[in-house]
Each structure stands twice: as C-alpha cells, then as structure tokens.
Amino acid sequence: MAQPQVIVIGNEKGGAGKSTLAIHIVTGLLHAGKKVAIIDLDLRQRSMERFFSNRGAWTAANEQPLPMPIVPDMGDGKALAKADEAEQLARFDAAYAEAQGVADIILIDTPGGDTALSRAAHGRADQIVTPMNDSFVDFDLLGEVDPVTLDLKKPSIYSESVWEARKHRAITEGRQVTIDWVVVTNRLAVAEARNRRRLEEKMLKLAKRVGFRVGPGLRDRVIYRELFPFGLTVADLSNDIRPVSVSLAHVAARQELRNLMQSLGLDDAQGGSLAPLDAAAA
C-alpha cells in the first residue's frame, strides 16, 4: 500500500477556524471516495473528533448513510492532556501507525500553540494548511510588520515552526523534502475592506520570502456553524438530507468548498460527486 498523504491543519493561534476548515476538507475528501483517517491533537477540546461523533449519531437516528472517516484510538483526551510529553507522543505514534495502514489520506488537526504533539505532526506533513482571520493579529504569527510604515520586517514564530518542520523532514528522510504550505484567509466578511487589501499585499510578499501559497478559505457564514451539531457540512446536503432550510447561500458555500479543495490540489474532491442540492425545494 502506498504511503498516505499527510495533511496538517496548523496555526499557533486559537480562533482561526482550524477545526472548521478540517471538517470541511475531510467531508470533501470522503465524498470523493477517499479513505480518510483523522487525528485530533487538540486533546481537551477535540472539536473535529466530536463533530464526527455527532455525524455518526445523526446518520444512525435518521437512517441516512454518509461516509465516515477512520478514527484511530488515542484514548481519553483530557487524561492524555495531563500526561507527560513522552506518553502523548507515544499515543500519537501509535495512532499514526494505525492510520498509515488503512488510509489514503491522514488529516491531523493541531491545537493553537506550540506543543510537542503539534511539532511532531508538522514534521510528518506533506501539506500544511494554515487558516488565518482577516486580521493583522493573525498575520503577526506569520510575519512582523513595522508599526509605523506597515512594511514587512521578518518572518514570525509560526513561519519559523514550519521552517523547522521542513528541516526535520529533510534530516530524518535524508533528502530534500518539499512540504506544500498553503495559507488560506478564513472567516472573511462578505464586504470588501481596506484592511484586507493591506493584508493581502503583505501576505504575498511574505509568501515569496518563506515559501507558502495563498488560497481561498471559507467566508464567515452562519451555515458553516449551524450544521455542526448534526455532524454535517454543506458537502453532505442534498434534496434528501436537509436538517436546516436550504437557501442559495448553501449553494454558494458549496462553491467555496470546491474552490478550497481545488486550491489544495485535491482536484478529484472538488465537489463533482456531491448529491444535487436544489435550493428552490427548501
């Protein structure tokens, strides 16, 4: 069996939408027929793992089969969060080894912050996807800007973490390894803003300097959040599966998901296999 592709959702700042991005990428891949294993390293919260637990419960109760990811067992997250680094890494290694044997793609959701688990995950990544809000607060983790001129000064702490991950892969594998790093602007407000134009200019400059690509994220839509309790995303909606009233906004959100998947190079998961969704039937 070929080695699975490893996608790491990473950003050392909380609140950037990592878990939201992770569950949408996973469901897009599942609907494309991929065998996806998920590892949630946000040990206390485990939003991604809880989402798919909700999914299993909803589909069973409503007799609506939907594809599910493989979830290697890492035990009680809250207990593991209190364990020492050695035990945490051992449990991660075991879960990762289990996923390697059964999955086409392993997606790892990392916590906000610099932890041993997060560093270990980044060191195994083939692709790192970093969501950031439409804000210089989030950009500060990627690059420092001059407070007077807003000129880009130097890469910041998370850029350095990705550099270390690339170096680790090169050392452990004994060859030059390319980790595809994609930064996506997440939770964008619908209206255009002067701040966004400034931010995009700095991102493009930093991208050339530290080696990432800029991709489209998911806008700040209520519909991305309202489906979470059911364990569903816009990729799951159809004329038969609609736990909420479906509108044209849901159709637009599907296109956003297609654009995201395409930007990540997951071309066979752009949404062409999704069930028809007729907003007029709502």
Task: Give an overview in words.
Helices cover 41% and strands 13% of the residues. With 282 residues, it is an alpha/beta fold. It has one domain (5-264): P-loop containing nucleotide triphosphate hydrolases (Rossmann fold, 3-Layer(aba) Sandwich). Helix 1 packs across helix 2 (47-62). Pfam families: MipZ.
Compact description:
It is built from ten helices and eight strands.
Q: Give the SSE string.
A: EHEHHHEHEHEEHEHEHH
* CATH homologous superfamily grouping: P-loop containing nucleotide triphosphate hydrolases
For the biggest β-sheet, the strand order reads 2-3-1-4-7-8
Largest sheet: 6 strands, parallel
Through-space gap between termini: 44 Å
Quickly name the level 1 CATH class: Alpha Beta
* Total helical elements: 10
Mean pLDDT: 87
* Global morphology: globular
The structural class is: alpha/beta
Low-confidence stretches: none
- Count the strands? 8
Strand content: 5-15%
- The count of domains is 1
Q: Give the helix proportion (percent range).
A: 40-55%
CATH topology name: Rossmann fold
CATH architecture: 3-Layer(aba) Sandwich
Radius of gyration: 19 Å
